[in-house]
Amino acid sequence: LASLIFQLRAQNQVLKKGVVDEQANSASLKEQLKMKDQSLRKLQQEMDSLTFRNQQLAKRVELLQDELALTEARGKKNKRSAESSSQLSQEQKSVFNEDLQKKIEENERLHNLFFEADEQHKRLEAELRTRLDVLETDAAQHQAVVDSLTRKYTDTIEKLQNDKAKLEIKSQTLEREAKDCRLRTEECQQQLKNLQAALGSRLEESLCIINEKVPFNDTRSNRYNALNVPLHNRRYQLKLRDLAGQALAFVQELVTALLNFHTYTEQKVQIFPIDSATDTISPLNQKFSQYLHENAAYVRPLEEGMLHLFESITEETVTVLETAVKLKAFSEHLASYLCFLRKILPYQLKSLEEECESSLCTAALRARNMELHRDMKRLTAVFEKLHTYVSLLALPSTKPEGLLRTNYNLVFTNIATSLHGFHDTLKDISKHYSQKATLEQDIPTATQKLVTTNDCILSSVVALTNGVGKIASFFSNNLDHFTASLSYGPKGGTEFINPLSAECMLQYKKKAVAYMKSLKKPCANSVPYEEALANRRVLLSSTESREGLAQQVQQSLEKIAKLEQEKEHWMLEAQLAKIKLEKENQKLKNSVSGHLTETIQDRSVLPNVAEQKKETTEKSPREPIKSTIFSLLNINICLLNFLLCQAPDVESREELIKNHYMARIAELTSHLQLADSKSVHFHAE
After folding, report:
1. Could you tell me if 197 and 260 lie in one domain?
2. pLDDT per residue as tens digits for the range 89-123
3. d(CA 372, CA 383)
4. What ranges does the record list as Basic and acidic residues composition bias (predicted)?
């Protein structure tokens, strides 16, 4: 971005310089245009003056001509005078003519100069105007470019300033984060030191305890650890069974390819170089064909041996070289097939030599036969190597001392190398057979049966090559697994597991499985979902009703507390009324009759009853409802006493008492109805 800014600035300087130069050039052209205008005006003025002089001269010529005519008329009268005057006029006329001729020539020259100057001025003016327009257009374009660059520079500068501000904010944020990270790092380092110190102390304590409390550890000695029962590695067994399944599939492909190869080779011997259908083949080829016909008896057992080995590897077994008994059977089947190859090898070599001696065999075909001659020897040698190494792997299951453990890795590595050599040999055989089949097709006596048989042999060789290549790749890819898990023993041990330990381990595994099954008890029958849902609804409804009743009880207790407060208030009012009543009684004793005195005494008894009620309520605070009723009675009695004191006669007092009790009855009835409705509502809930 900075380089772009520098480039734009340099371009801006160049454009500014060009604009200044063009402006200076335009100013100079304008000055030249002004000067040309001035010269044009001068020429115009001169032209005007010359025109005026020409007009004067023309008038003067006319006058002279008139005078000449007059003089000629007068000359008739006076010839002498005429002759003299004519002579004089001739001289004057010649002078005037010369002068006039000069004026005319000068006028013509001036006219030409004026015309040329006018044309040149117009042409120059047009050129200057055109150039001025071009320069103005260029100046406008340059100005537009300058304006656009200025705006662009302004936007770029603003953007850079914004980026700078953002980067500064980001740098500040990163600095703060870095500080926080440093602080956290220091804290973590401190915690790490503390943990290391704590773990070191705990390690020392553990080592001390181990040294003091564990005097004998059998896992440290391989000899003692070999006596421990190893763990059952189920994952190892599953992996090994998977590998055995893949190997079985590859061996089946190999067996099929070998059967096809031997069968089609037998057909080839029957038809080339001599066709058995038309002539008798040689005794050598007859014997060779007879042996090839027996190939299935030696090839099929290879597949069966690998199948038995695969079936012996299960999850419930311990598969190691010491317990792989079926590997010995596979080795024996491989030895049987090797004997078959050794038996047919001389006949196969002699058959190739017989083909070379045939009159139909060309030099190229003879060379291919000799190459196949060498390839067949190599093929038999490869099978001998494979049989040797497989028989070595089968030794631990029959004779554990026959193969040392240190040689296991070497045996597996040599098997992988032999398989790759086997694959290379088959590729050479496939190549040479292909060339041989091509050459045999060019023989004049080649039949369609020979061509078909060659194609079948070639396809079987290709299938055999592909199958062996798969086996070699499979073995090389899993070589690490074979060498790392040849056999396993107790935890931490390095000794081989023996068959007795494996059998003991399997027995313990069965016991553990039985124990785990015994621990696994069936679950009790659970409550059905619909029933549980219904019970939940009932429980929720009962809980809600209980909560509602608890709220009602709480509200009732609050109301009772308020009524207690009102009771105390009205008790105070009753005491005041009692005092007032006593004062009134004292006043009435002096003025009222005995009947009124008795009534006053009855009235005085009522406050005593109120006091007794008060004492009973104070003695039983645990019965709030009862105390509330008594307080209401006290209030009623006090009110009655007050009303009786105010009433002057008996009828008015009775009316007041009746009205008061009727109002109280109506109020209590309404309270009773409200309580009944609430009780019905609670009962419904």
Report:
1. no
2. 676 667 777 777 887 888 788 788 888 888 888 88
3. 16
4. 611-622
Question: Is 0.70 surpassed by the pTM of this model?
Answer: no
Read off the pLDDT of residues 275-312 as tens digits, 9 standing for 90 and up. 767 777 888 888 888 888 888 899 999 999 999 988 88
Cα-based distances in Å from 111 to 60, 124, 560, 683: 21, 19, 141, 141
Kindly report the backbone phi and psi dihedral angles of residue 521, in degrees, each rounded to the nearest multiple of 5, phi listed first: -95, 150
Burial of 230 (0-12, 13-18, 19+ CB in 10 A): buried
Tell me which range, 497-501, 547-551, 558-562, is most confidently predicted by mean pLDDT: 558-562
Domain count, the chain: 3
Owning domain of residue 581: 546-646
CATH of the domain at 72: 1.10.287
Under DSSP, is residue 237 helix (H, G, I), strand (E, B) or coil?
helix
Nearest to 268 by CA among 361, 338, 375, 351: 351
To the nearest 10°, report the CA torsion of 154, 158, 163, 169. 160
Domain identity same for 334 and 271: yes
Q: Do 202 and 262 belong to one domain?
A: no
Q: Is 419 exposed, middle or buried (0-12, 13-18, 19+ CB in 10 A)?
A: buried
Residues 299 and 419 in one domain: yes
Q: How far apart are CA 608 and CA 309, in angstroms?
A: 118
Q: Please, are residues 36 and 121 in contact by the beta-carbon 8 Å criterion?
A: yes
Alpha-carbon dihedral angle through residues 85, 86, 87, 91, given to the nearest 10 degrees: 100
Query: Which of 488, 518, 533 corresponds to the end of one domain?
Result: 488
Q: What is the pLDDT of residue 518?
A: 82
Considering the domain boundaries, does residue 23 fall inside one?
yes
Domain shared by 410 and 376, yes or no: yes
Question: Cis omega before residue 444 (within 30°)?
Answer: no
Residue 545 is predicted with a pLDDT of 57
Percent of the chain with pLDDT over 70: 78
